[in-house]
Amino acid sequence: MFDIKQKVGVLGGGQLGLMLLQAAIDWNLNVKILDAADAPCAAIAPEFVEGSLQDYDAVYQFGQDVEVLTIEIEKVNVEALEALEREGKKVFPQPHVIRLIQDKRLQKQFYREYGLPTADFVLTANREDVRNYADFLPAFHKLGKDGYDGKGVQRIASPADFDKAFDAPGLLEKAVDFDKELAVIVARNERGEVATFPTVEMVFHPEANLVEYLFAPADISPEIERQAEELAKKTAQAIGIVGLLAVEMFLTKDGQVLINEVAPRPHNSGHHTIRANFTSQFEQHWRAILDFPLGDTTAYTPAAMVNLLGEEGHTGPAHYEGMEEILATHGVFPFLYGKKITKPFRKMGHITVTDSNLAKLKEKAEWVRGALKVVTK
Amino acid sequence: MFDIKQKVGVLGGGQLGLMLLQAAIDWNLNVKILDAADAPCAAIAPEFVEGSLQDYDAVYQFGQDVEVLTIEIEKVNVEALEALEREGKKVFPQPHVIRLIQDKRLQKQFYREYGLPTADFVLTANREDVRNYADFLPAFHKLGKDGYDGKGVQRIASPADFDKAFDAPGLLEKAVDFDKELAVIVARNERGEVATFPTVEMVFHPEANLVEYLFAPADISPEIERQAEELAKKTAQAIGIVGLLAVEMFLTKDGQVLINEVAPRPHNSGHHTIRANFTSQFEQHWRAILDFPLGDTTAYTPAAMVNLLGEEGHTGPAHYEGMEEILATHGVFPFLYGKKITKPFRKMGHITVTDSNLAKLKEKAEWVRGALKVVTK
């Protein structure tokens, strides 16, 4: 039943919250946000509550007067969400999904158990333990919990790198000889409808381990497209998520599609959908968690997305260099997150680029990367 | 110079303000809104000031700490804006433009003076005066000031209708035997760049005198399209407006394009641009008044727009009937204004419909008109 009066609570008021609020305006949704006072959403949320996402009492209290709760970041107090769920609140994604995704070790075991193809791995207890797997290299050591935005991953190319391993529960994942990194965002609503956005291709920043460029559609065969979308749907159904699931994948050089990681929320790999698809990932998130019919994910134009990262060597109040040229160029759409302070590689915004011509699209995306800079004065 | 820190004040926090705020999120604009406490924007404006738009002191005080001032409704205190302009604030559209547009008599005389084609008219002092123009009928009597949303216009078909004329300064305009009603939204920024959105075709509700359906693009020849866009540009340049100008026109049965009325702000005839054009009219408004380069107005899909008017016979707390079916239909995008109380013919929202097939587009628009209703329980 469509009830625009119901109150929805969002844990987290960062840039994803900002874009969720922007989409919520269309339906005049009654949204309340929990986060620290300096969060980007503070000024524009219909209701904003200051508090820590990881504090049991803050989350539990926040959930008291809402009908539906959701998240825009996984690092939240799941115990409080479980208590709210027991008391009859709808919490989407469900607490058990958040728990699964907070722990990369559980995640990988889940893929194995459900026959979802993923890179080979072993669980490791601590740094010492990792040294037992010299024959498993080259590999990536991943922290079980608390990794985010490229942090919590170390490449272990040879035994000489073992010192870089985390001294905490983690997993060692065989390095995949991949051709491309792909992502599919899939939505699933309470009644079990499932819909995928077209597969995108991600190019990572070599140093920051963050998405530097994204291209939609991915340059892959229809058969790989089908496989990637199928894998995303299968994963969403296996997890039983209500909400969005962003599924990052490897396309190996021998043509296999493997799950890398998933995120149970709107994701960096879907920002371009605001400017390139009939339904954005943010609107789709609302549709999924409010049990509305899912929207049309079709793209009306090819698009690229460039993350706007804080310039190296600049820490302090943010200034944007090059906006005039950016705004003068057709098919270039900057989105700024309003973070007061820039730091090297901090995500300060993103730029969506659209062009019906794929070669021009790539050219324009590369130009954009250099044309807009976040610096201190 | 792009400065996202500058504060922009908007007089008015209705549905146009809502859509302006939605567009402002992309660039994290620092927007402050003035309106009554129950205005739709109150909850989501970065800063909201309660006050009357028609009160000199309220508007003057509101303008003190902003760098740029704009409006989303013409009925504002222009004296206060003139004072602020004299003190060096940028006010766009300029107070002289608002003054011109607040008075339909001045507007019509302006068109005549600048050779902008418009329907023949005579100025009338009061109701008695109108009776002198029996040979001018059929005609429309328009109130000089304070008409809005279809109010302030009376059809005078024959002398028997003279009692319906307004007993206030107005103008009597010869009824135009038109084939279609068209509209072009044109933007002009401070540096004088001008850009038009593609011409749209409006179908009015016979009783409420409000746009009932809008189709983009209009079903007109390329030559008429050119004429309509040229007329909009010429008008914007003649007025010297900085901001958006919505130019409503008649296409007469003998192929002439005549200006009907203009509005110096985002307009009902451009709502579909949010879902159908690379730049929306709301983003374009920000670009124009902040002296940014104007955006690409190209449409990526044909679109229709249906105003969601309060159902006849229903006055009270608003409920939305049919949203489930609306949301289940691809290419149908409802936008609700969040007004608590519905009244017959009150604008409660609008629905954008997109389809690459024009026949299906019209079919879908007609279906939408009946499928979604705003009622009281």
From TrEMBL, chains A, B:
Gene3D superfamilies: 3.40.50.20, ATP-grasp fold, A domain, ATP-grasp fold, B domain. InterPro entries: ATP-grasp, ATP-grasp_carboxylate-amine, ATP_grasp_subdomain_1, PreATP-grasp_dom_sf, PurK, PurK_C, PurT/PurK_preATP-grasp, Rudment_hybrid_motif. GO terms for biological process: 'de novo' IMP biosynthetic process. GO terms for cellular component: cytosol. It catalyses: 5-amino-1-(5-phospho-beta-D-ribosyl)imidazole + hydrogencarbonate + ATP = 5-carboxyamino-1-(5-phospho-D-ribosyl)imidazole + ADP + phosphate + 2 H(+). Pathway: Purine metabolism; IMP biosynthesis via de novo pathway; 5-amino-1-(5-phospho-D-ribosyl)imidazole-4-carboxylate from 5-amino-1-(5-phospho-D-ribosyl)imidazole (N5-CAIR route): step 1/2. One of its GO terms (molecular function) is ATP binding. Catalyzes the ATP-dependent conversion of 5-aminoimidazole ribonucleotide (AIR) and HCO(3)- to N5-carboxyaminoimidazole ribonucleotide (N5-CAIR). Homodimer. This is N5-carboxyaminoimidazole ribonucleotide synthase. It comes from Runella rosea. The gene is purK.
